[in-house]
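REQUEST ID: PR-0412
SUBMITTED BY: lab tech R.K.
PRIORITY: routine
TASK: structure prediction, single protein chain
INPUT:
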Amino acid sequence: MPGTVAPSESKEGSRPFLGFEHLSANYIYCPNQFLDVCLPNCSRGTVRLVAYIMYCTLRWRDENGQPIEQEISVPYSDLISKAGISRGAITRAIDEAVRKNFIVCVNVALPKGKRITAQTARYALRWSGDSNYRRDIKAFHGFYAGDGNRSPIPLAYFDRVIRTESLAVAKVVGTVLRHTVGYETQFGRRSQAPLSYNFIQQYARIGDRNTLAKAVTYAIDTGYI
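STATUS: complete
OUTPUT:
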C-alpha cells in the first residue's frame, strides 16, 4: 500500500512486480546465515552491502557449482548505483559488516602518490571453518562453508527487494523466503508456510508492531508475498 512504508527508491522499484521467477533459473544458493543472522541484526546499509557482495560472488558459478569470483571489488560508485547505499552510509556499512564478520577486507585502499598507483579496496565474504552452524550474532565469525545450509533465493530478492525497499519490507520478504523455499523436504521445497505476526516479528527482529503490519501489507500489495 503506497505510503505505509518507505517507497521504492529507484526506477527499478517503481515498475510493477510480476512475481519471483521459478527456481529453475535466476537464483543464487544463498547462505542461510544471511537470512538468519545478517538480515535481523544489521542496518539497512550493511544488509544491502553484504547482499550486493553475495550477489556478485555467488551469482556466477563454474560447472562444479563453485563461485567463479572469490573476491569482489566494491567501488563507491557501484554501492550507490547498484547496491542502493547512499554515499553518507557507505563507510558505516563497511565498518559494520567487517566488525560483525560478514565481510573481510582483502586489499586496503591506497591513494595515488609519487611512484604509487592508486589501489581500490577489495572486499570478500568472510567464510568460517567452524563445523557448527551459528545463528547467534555474537558467535558468528563468518558464513558456514560446509555443505548444506543454503537456499535457492531468487535474484529479484537481491536486486529488487533489498536494493530498493525499506529494511522492514526486506525482512518480511526474507522471512517468508527462508521458511518456504528455504526448507526442503522429501517432497520438495515448500511453496507456502503458516507464519504468524509474532513469528515474523521475532525472527526478523522488527521491534515495532505497527512497522511490521505496514511492511506485511506493502509486501502483499506489491506482489512480493
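NOTES: Residues 1-7 have pLDDT under 50 and may be disordered.
REVIEWED BY: pending
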